[in-house]
Amino acid sequence: EDLQDVQTRVSTRRTGDRTRRHYAQRIVTADGVLRQCACSAAPYEYDGQVIGTVVEYIDGARLEQAGGAFVRDAALFHELFELSPVAVYTTDAYHRFAMVNPACRLLLQRPIEELQALTPYEVVAPEYRDLLHDQRDARGSVDNLEFEVLRPDGSRRWVRASVRAWDGPSGAFAGQVGVIQDITDQVAQRQAAEADARRDPLTGILNR
Description:
Elements: H1 2-14, E1 23-28, E2 34-46, E3 49-59, H2 70-83, E4 87-91, E5 97-100, H3 102-108, H4 112-115, H5 126-135, E6 142-150, E7 156-167, E8 173-182, H6 184-197
Antiparallel strand pairs: 1-2, 2-3, 4-5, 4-8, 6-7, 7-8
């Protein structure tokens, strides 16, 4: 009955609904065990044509010890992650990008396949990498640090970033989660105001 439900939802998407959603589903493993999970199905498109379906399963058993409604919470997290207007990413234990939401991919102008081969340091403008390294604490966390990121086309965007480290089940470092806000317009306005403050408003001559 779950398979029929998923097929119905996929069929709806094929008619034009492209919204990513998560639903509680059950799957049967090869050894016959019934597992609860969160399931998301979306059309896979190539060159503008739907050629298949991508199905994502989040194993609920691994989240049970966190408390009740684990499937609902996992689905809600992924929904918020995908729809957030703020750029959010996670890294793995080797500091490479792992999960990158659409807002972050748009900000960095890079596809997920390219980002997963990079570390956050590699998208920071070179002159700010030492600053980012110096400002982080022993676990790699930073708060409201401003710097520029470099896009593939050579353009730059000012961002404000906060980064937190997180541990795996064994307590060892497992990666980081970062939140990035594009502040390019705010920085331009601030710099213009600072430049105006250094000059006489009538003559344009630098103030002493």
